[in-house]
Write a structure and sequence with these properties.
- The chain is mainly α and 420 residues long.
- Helix content is 79%, strand content 0%.
- The protein has 19 helices and no strands.
- Helix 11 crosses helix 16.
């Protein structure tokens, strides 16, 4: 029996690990609120008289503190218990969403107050995102990473199928405050579950500043990592600016408003579920190349809405985009966890996160300004074109094809990760 076969027999499924089940449950609970939150936030801004410009300010304010504190979060994730960081970060997010629900529900919401709550949520994300990067590596066997990454996403994606539709109905009937309040409650429950993971802190050697310097050297030495991050800077900004900012605005102008936008988000989530199921069965050899190609599916719903296609075609495009995105995320996460040592995952994840988020505030603001000059549909097509062009350029990087699934699990035997 091969080493890989022996390991697979020893670890047949990550769901047999109690800590992994707890981690999956925490993600599921949090997803029930997060599935409704973007729609509720958008219509909270629209409800108090704001348009694309006001929504752009709110979304940019949510992103800026994440960028500002992400490196700090990455260093802490490689020095302290990741479960404790996730606990505190989720509590902070609960406070932010709870206050937001209160001011929206009492009719005291303004663009400034909504943006202030978003700023607090952005700080929480800066600490939880890098910590979450290293959890799977600490609780499952290396050869089960792709399955574990898919299983972590599966329950949350399933919730997102109905979550936006239900959220759209709640917003249409009762207003956005109820959906925001539920999101706050789910953060509290997730925090309690995550502290129960009791993950050991990574062994820290040297100062935090030295860790940061070492992290930057490691990030820059991995060409596949920084080029993928650079491409993500454009792709993520164009997708969020087009979908999250202009999507609800275009839905309000040309479709049936919150109800149609909820259906589009539900279709996208249905695609995410299908993509997760694909990843449970399909294990591509060229992990990073597949991640790049399948991520380009985000062009489809932006293009469909930009061309003014009927809602049924937009829904089909959203499903296909969801399939591609989830395959992309699972393949990318598996490659990242396989080629970066566990003790560096927080910092590498932080550098990657900063890179992918860096252009988001500018994308929101630029898109909001452009939407004031050109029709929203035209701006959506520009966003789709930016994603397509960036994907082609990223596929021209030779190192993208060197990040492959390892046929022999040397890490399982020696504790070392493969070097591309």
């Amino acid at each position: 029996m091969t080493v890989e076969a022996e390991l697979l027999a020893t670890h047949p499924s990550p769901l047999r690990v109690a800590a992994f089940r707890r981690f999956v449950l925490a993600n599921l609970v949090s997803a029930t609120g997060s599935a409704m939150a973007p729609l509720a936030l958008a219509y909270a801004v629209i409800g108090q008289g704001g348009g694309a410009g006001a929504l752009g300010v709110v979304l940019a304010t949510n992103t800026l503190p994440t960028i500002a504190f992400l490196l700090v979060g990455g260093v802490l994730a490689d020095r302290f218990s990741r479960s404790r960081i996730l606990f505190l970060g989720n509590l902070l997010a609960a406070v932010a969403q709870g206050v937001l629900a209160g001011i929206v529900g009492t009719g005291h919401a303004t663009t400034v107050s909504i943006a202030a709550c978003g700023l607090l949520s952005g700080v929480a994300t800066a600490f939880t995102a890098p910590a979450a990067q290293g959890v799977v590596n600490q609780i499952v066997a290396p050869e089960q990473r792709q399955q574990a990454n898919a299983l972590v996403r599966l329950p949350g994606n399933a919730v997102k199928v109905l979550g936006p539709v239900i959220g759209g109905l709640i917003v249409a009937v009762s207003g956005p405050a109820w959906a925001l309040g539920w999101d706050a409650l789910t953060f509290v429950v997730a925090a309690v579950l995550l502290i129960g993971l009791r993950l050991e802190a990574p062994v820290a050697v040297g100062s935090a500043v030295a860790d940061l310097r070492t992290g930057w050297s490691g990030f820059w030495s991995r060409r596949w990592l920084w080029t993928y991050t650079a491409a993500g800077t454009v792709v993520v900004a164009a997708w969020l600016a087009g979908y999250q900012l202009l999507g609800p605005v275009v839905a309000a102008e040309h479709y049936a408003g919150a109800r149609s936008w909820g259906q589009i988000q539900g279709a996208f989530a249905l695609g995410l579920v299908a993509g997760t199921l694909v990843c449970l069965r399909w294990k591509p050899h060229h992990l990073l190349a597949v991640a790049v190609v399948t991520g380009a599916g985000l062009v489809l719903p932006l293009g469909a809405m930009g061309l003014g296609l009927p809602l049924r075609y937009v829904l089909i495009a959203a499903v296909l985009a969801g399939v591609g995105l989830d395959v992309s995320v699972v393949c990318w996460t598996t490659a990242f966890q396989s080629y970066v040592p566990s003790e560096e995952l927080g910092r590498m994840g932080a550098f990657n996160g900063i890179g992918e988020r860096l252009a988001i505030p500018f994308g929101y603001l630029l898109t909001a300004l452009a939407a004031g000059v050109w029709p929203g549909r035209v701006v959506l097509l520009v966003c789709a074109g930016a994603i397509a062009l960036t994907t082609v350029l990223n596929l021209c990087v030779r190192d993208v094809y060197r990040i492959k699934r390892q046929p022999v699990r040397e890490e399982s035997r020696t504790g070392r990760v493969p070097v591309p």
